[in-house]
Design goal:
single chain, Aspartate Aminotransferase, domain 1, 4-stranded antiparallel sheet, Aspartate Aminotransferase, domain 2, 14 helices
Length: 434
């Protein structure tokens, strides 16, 4: 090429998907892979109930499902969702305050690409990879973050957040992921209100990723952004990928709050909408399915059963891992992930796990021959030795070494076996260099 055309930041890796290529190499060599890398309930054995399938079959008989939707989304669905928000009696929105996208990945990309390159969104650390990549690619600089504390149940450092917002004038917005991905932390209402007050004090807007808003358990409670935002400008991001679950639908939406109260924020939302117009619209079928599925009498019992299952798996994993040497874990209370952190300075470049199959052993050793993060090294050896595919925690933009696993397996006995295998291999790996 005449000169370098790649935008700075293109070297970033989306490890949740990137590790699949490593696992696929093992599959071709006869290794059974246990997928713990991605939050896809369907991949982990979730059976879509008959009543939900019937809703979709009925929709496929309607000609409307084969056409374009309006740019913002199907009118009836936006009316339905706005009414659900307004029914809570806190913030009030109209259907015009809702914009549909081809999944939340699309919504996230639009949200960050629509802001100026010299302003930033401060985000939690560790943070979900899609937000991280979108923020870094828009600005071509590492993100500003506020830390989630693993030694305090993964609660955010609110004082650090306020200090950074006050000192970094380029910060114009705050990202909150509630419940959190990758940690499974559920924000209490008091903490959320403090974050809203910081936004109000320093004239910022809020982005709340509420993908897992209705997947909360172990006695925890939280509130949606709509309950606490008051007159602060903000965006709530929601979707059906995890809750229905229907990840292949690629259907998510933004709920816009208080654009009528701030001219600058209103212009920002208009840029997002203008970008959206270039796509014409988002997928029609899943949008039309939302009211019919959420209003179905079987919907809430089905969701409740899944939540109880995640709670069981959360407690199984916590019981096995909580007293394990060399790592620290918190009980997951929302979403369906658990994050395990290695104790400080416990990992090194001499640790290994025995891999019986020679070609796999050679492949893993080649992967770790180049300098890699210590937790990524562990993840590769774990994959080669056991077939268990987890995600290194450092890929979520944190210096904390560890890994994220899912709580999705429908077979409780199999899940417990996998966690026990994880525990055994954590100890074996750490002690291998002694």
């Amino acid at each position: 090429m005449r000169f370098d055309i790649a935008k700075s930041g293109s070297g970033l890796v989306y490890e949740i998907r990137n590790i699949v290529s490593v696992a696929d190499k093992l599959k071709r060599s006869g290794i059974e892979v246990i997928w713990e890398n991605i939050g896809d309930p369907v991949q982990k054995g979730e059976k879509i109930p008959g009543w939900m399938r019937e809703v979709l079959v009925d929709l496929l008989k309607e000609d409307r499902t084969y056409g374009y939707s309006p740019t913002k989304g199907m009118d009836a669905t936006r009316e339905f969702l706005a009414e659900r928000v307004n029914r809570r009696g806190k913030a009030q929105i109209t259907p015009e305050d809702i914009i549909f996208f081809n999944g939340l990945g699309d919504a996230i990309a639009r949200a960050y690409s629509a802001i100026r390159v010299d302003v930033r969104i401060i985000m939690p650390e560790p943070t979900y990879s899609t937000h991280l990549l979108a923020e870094v690619l828009h600005a071509s600089f590492p993100p500003n973050t506020y830390r989630m504390n693993p030694y305090c149940d993964w609660s955010p450092d609110i004082n650090e957040l306020e200090r950074k917002v006050k000192s970094h004038r380029a910060v114009v917005g705050i990202l909150v992921i509630n419940p959190d991905n990758p940690t499974g932390y559920v924000y209490p209402e008091e903490t959320l209100r403090r974050i809203v007050e910081i936004a109000r004090t320093y004239d910022l807007f809020l982005i709340f990723d509420e993908t897992y808003q209705n997947i909360v358990y172990n006695g925890r409670n939280t509130v949606p952004l709509s309950d606490i935002i008051g007159d602060v400008p903000g965006i709530s991001m929601k979707g059906i990928s995890k809750e229905f679950p229907w990840p292949g639908s690629r259907c998510g939406w933004m709920e816009i709050y208080n654009a009528d109260k701030d001219e600058i924020f209103a212009r920002y939302i208009d840029v997002i909408l203008t970008q959206k117009m270039s796509e014409v619209c988002s997928t029609t079928l899943p949008q039309m399915a939302i009211p019919r599925i959420m209003n179905h009498p079987e919907y809430q019992p089905y969701l409740n059963e899944r939540i109880r299952h995640y709670e069981k798996l959360s407690n199984i994993a916590y019981r096995i891992l909580k007293d394990l040497p060399y790592v620290m874990v918190n009980r997951t209370c929302g979403a369906f992930y658990m994050t395990v952190v290695f104790n400080e300075a416990i990992l090194n470049s001499r640790q290994t796990l025995p891999i019986a199959q020679e070609d796999i052993r050679n492949y893993i050793e080649k992967l770790v021959a180049e300098p890699v993060e210590f937790d990524k090294r562990f993840v590769y050896y774990l994959l080669g030795a056991t077939g268990i595919c987890v995600i290194p925690l450092t890929s979520f933009f944190t210096d904390l070494p560890g890994f994220r696993m899912t709580l999705l397996d429908r077979d409780e006995a199999k899940f417990e076996q996998v966690v026990r295998m994880l525990a055994e291999n954590i100890v074996a790996y750490v002690e291998s260099s002694r």
